[in-house]
Each structure stands twice: as structure tokens, then as C-alpha cells.
Amino acid sequence: MAEHDKIRNSMQLKSEASLITTPSKSYGSATEPAGRVAAAVPTVCLFILAVELCERLAYYTFTGTAEFFLVKSGYSLAQANGLTTAMATLCMAWAIVAGWVADVQLGRDTTII
User: Fold this and answer.
1) Which of 35, 56, 75, 108 could bond to 80 as cystine, CB 3.0-4.6 Å?
2) Does the predicted TM-score (pTM) go above 0.70?
3) Rounded to whole angstroms, how far apart are CA atoms 50 and 107?
């Protein structure tokens, strides 16, 4: 019983020590603490999410209203539906092609930066 308590106490002390001390690593500069760099990651993620939200909002708004616009412009309903579907298909296919070019040809890090 006593040995079990010693092991548990030593594990507790190790975990408390790791909570108290935070090592300072050099990510961007020699004086910048590790916590400061980690705090910048959510900001970057929020910007990426905002851009994705705006992109999807624009796409779905355009595809949702394009058929009505084409019908008012003089196309028949079948022609307007065909053009809208072709545009949506080309957008999806272009995303696959552009993703391959970005990852394979340009490099993932170069594309992001």
C-alpha cells in the first residue's frame, strides 16, 4: 500500500511540475515563448474558416440564383438548369485539379503562404 502511494505521489508531483514550468522554445525568435506562438494558431485558423465561409456563401448564392437569372434572361427552364448544373460540375472538377496542382506541382507550403 505504501509503495502504491509513493508512485502515485511521484506521478502527481511530475504532473504538477510540468504545469508550473513552461519551456521557452525558439519558434520565430529566440525570446518568444512557446505559448505566444501557440496562441497565434487559432487566429490563423479563424481567418481560414472565415475565408472558407465567404467562399461557400458566394458559391451557393450564385448557384441558387443563376437559374432564375437565366430564365429571366430568355433561356428556357431546361437550358437554365443545364447551364447551372454544368457550372456546378465544372466548379467541383476544377477544385480537384487545382488541389492536385497546389499539392503536387507547387508544394503544399508554398501554396498556403
Assistant:
1) 75
2) no
3) 23
Please, are residues 84 and 66 in contact by the beta-carbon 8 Å criterion?
yes
81-95 per-position pLDDT tens digit:
999 999 999 999 998
Find where cell 450564385 sits. 62
The Cα 81–Cα 8 span in angstroms is: 68
As to burial, measured by CB atoms within 10 angstroms (0-12 exposed, 13-18 middle, 19+ buried), residue 62 is middle
In angstroms, how far is the first alpha carbon of the chain from the final one? 57
Nine-digit cell at 3?
509503495
At 53, the amino acid letter reads L
Alpha helices in the chain (DSSP H): 2-20, 34-72, 77-100, 108-112
Sign of CA dihedral 88, 61, 42, 109: positive
Chain mean pLDDT for the chain = 77
Judge whether residue 14 has pLDDT over 80. no
